[in-house]
What we know:
Elements: H1 3-30, H2 41-50, H3 52-86, H4 88-102, H5 110-117, H6 121-145, H7 149-157, H8 162-200, H9 205-214, H10 218-246, H11 252-257
Helix pairs in contact: 2-10, 3-4, 3-6, 3-8, 3-9, 3-10, 4-6, 5-6, 6-8, 8-9, 8-10, 9-10
Amino acid sequence: MSLQSKRLEAWAPWVLMAAVILLWQAICSAFSVSEFIFPSPARIWEQFVEFKGEIAKHAWRTFWVTLAGFGLAIVIGVLLGFLIGSSRLAYAAIYPLMTAFNALPKAAFVPILVVWFGIGVGPAVLTAFLISFFPITVNIATGLATLEPELEDVLRVLGARRWDVLVKVGLPRSMPYFFGSLKVAITLAFVGTTVSEMTASNEGIGYLLVSAGSAMQMGLAFAGLVVVGVMAMLMYELFSYLEKRITGWAHRGSQGNA
């Protein structure tokens, strides 16, 4: 890939974002759209500056609660994925049940979690966990379950045990799947936390959205949404960076052709 192509690729998201913001502002100004219906980027920025302290406080609450639920999702997801991917019996028994559970709307669990744990951190952490562990489990299980039978047979002939094959070959082979799942799961975790905070918390961006909406401060509500999007994007980029650093071997072909 040429230097010019790399620069273009790096700047493309920023150029597109700037174009969207300019178009958004132009539409709001040209048609005199009321800020109570659809605030302009300028109004959102004004509200962000005006309430930056309040937004920062709620954003920090949402961030660490999301990471707590996400960390729990990683631990449970990896363990469950390893169990499902390493055993055909476990795959046949557990995977259909997990698929059915994942189809359930996680927002419906929030009132139940409130009854069990009360209003506060507990429901938010668990909602973030419930909505984000499934992609991790599925990708770890897929990486292990799709290990080539021929490779496994060769390793067995060389004296490797089933455990050795899974740990020394299966898990490293699952790393690209794992990091791919992290990029999806972290965005879902933010969704879960925000949804829970909207109904079962007195802090966090979700609570801020409800409060701003009830006060008809739509610019503040949109500012909260932007903050959640930025946090999710930064975490996504972090995992993308770690993926390239740790699993670069899995992308040799694409890099060579670039």
